[in-house]
């Protein structure tokens, strides 16, 4: 979608946990749509992360680019709609594996990160918690594959 709510929280938590990682990794986020390109994360997402000691305020939305499929080994998606969109956009020679974030990170089999955009503060807090859990799962899985 637009890369201002869920993806910045997932990126923020993965970056926040990176110093604890046993393996080096690069993290970035992108939306399947470009309508928010260049915009900061939603203020409610920034506030939810800040309440937990994670600063995502410097991030800027961007749209997924063709070279992302070569640049990254793994493209994690918040929900099935984004997963389908990313799979459709993937070139035939894509290097990056595409998966649901909560599933790949071991948080919830087939789980989706709900879009909090039209919700309340508690919805952003919930997504923030899921992003934290996904980051922990990401570290565990990357370490086990190293």
Automatic annotation (TrEMBL):
The keyword Transcription regulation does not apply. Keywords: Hydrolase, Protein phosphatase. CDD domains: LMWPTP. Its EC number is 3.1.3.48. The active site is at residues 6, 115. The keyword Secreted does not apply. GO terms for molecular function: protein tyrosine phosphatase activity. Residues 2-141 form the Phosphotyrosine protein phosphatase I domain. Belongs to the low molecular weight phosphotyrosine protein phosphatase family. This is protein-tyrosine-phosphatase.
